[in-house]
Amino acid sequence: MESLVHLGEGFLTVLTPMNLLWVLVGAVLGTAVGVLPGLGSAMAVALLLPVTFSLDPIGAFIMFSGVLFGGLFGDSISGILMNTPGNSTAIAGSIEGHRMAKDGRAAQALATSAIGAFAGGVVASLLVVFFAPSLAELATLFGPAEYLALALFAFVAISAVVSESVLRGLAALVFGLAIALVGIDGISGAARFTGGLPELFDGIDIVVITVGLLALGEVLAVAARRGTKEDTRVLPSTGRLWLSRREFRLALPAWLRGTAIGVPFGIIPVGGSEVPTFLAYGTERRLASRRPDSRFGRGAIQGVAGPEAAGNATAGTAMGALLALGLPTSATAAILLAAFRQYGLQPGPLLFERASELVWALLASFFVGMAVLLVLNLPFAPLWAKLLKVPRHYLYAGISVFAMLGVYATSSKILDLVLVLAIGLLGFLMRRYGLPVAPVLIAVILGPLAETEFRRAMAVSEGDPAVLVSSPISISLYAVLVLGVTGLLFARLRSRRRQKAVV
């Protein structure tokens, strides 16, 4: 009951003209960036991070909530109409969504996506409202060893899951940890990897890293592909913008199942919504195979409904894990954690006490943002599709200028522009050779935390490493990690044997 009281106070904060404007601006900008192939919701947050520094913290995070969920829906628009998902989290829903579009049912596919995103996001946000304070209380049991175990869990789990090769995922993690080490060591005061430059004593700014790795890295990757044969034809969004009674009956169970699949994955560090969206798609496909009238392969509405609900449900509960535990379970959550730190805030158990007004306003803005997106996207999705017709060389040139201006505006340092270019080149090379980007971001954000907690644990125990596995929480985290990675390796080995057997 106390949670509902706090949520009501959050709604009072959000439902003011200025804060409603920030929700609307965030939803529009998030959708506009998300709809562009290769950008997606994580890059929408990264690009807009410098823009919000002039806002008060509540206004900035209310805007971010609109950007987050708007970007997720924008990812799906380009996947359905162009078969080029804005982000990997929209791939599963685009499989049947694009087939529906080719069958002349693009508008119904977009409507299914919008309603599914709304349903999954609302249910997940309700769970966060009721259970995030309990998670925060649980987090008070964590000491240095437990936080180190949590960080290592996030490192290895994300590195192993988001890449087809575990070695590539771990290589990306090492790059991130190397970047995180730049600057003055907080405990010893020694300068590390600064090259004697005083500008680097404070480390590399997270805005420089996210904009360079995500925005500029993608721009360079797109430029390298210019002139290659790519299917860029955009299908028109034709047909009615609502679902028939029969379509709604088919989609409703898929929305519910997708939400149930996506909710638990938000608090598990698996790098985002890729795993739950494909699980939801596979579930719907298996269930539909028992029906004689299955449309899978020709545009099944359940194949859009399940993954879309799963993706937004995962994003919603990921915010709960971020707020209550300070644990970013995806690249987008890692960038939002950086945004909290820019305002001098540390997500975790104390956030609900030290910044209660901000936390509950942010949670209330989830509901308002998703309602705004539903109103925006059901009738106006065809208009968003017009952005896909902008020539790419103009579009990505504009993104580059916007990104560089944003970075320079935050620090007024020429060195930061050089670093953006260098990190952008690193992002391009990672994409070129199949290294995932998410582990780099997670390592940059959680690397300093892991180092600090490890050294604290060693100091408290006077150098005894047994302290790292001396509590039930840390032992449980390491056990789950070992079991999960072992299961993943066996599954991949089995998949490779099957492929060799087919060949």
From TrEMBL:
Alphabetically ordered keywords of this record: Membrane, Transmembrane, Transmembrane helix
Q: Which InterPro entries match?
A: DUF112_TM
The residues that cross the membrane are 20-49, 55-73, 109-132, 144-163, 170-191, 203-223, 250-271, 318-338, 358-381, 393-410, 417-446, 466-491
Q: Mind telling me what this protein is named?
A: Tripartite tricarboxylate transporter TctA
4Fe-4S in keyword set = no
Where does the record place the DUF112 domain?
A: 20-441
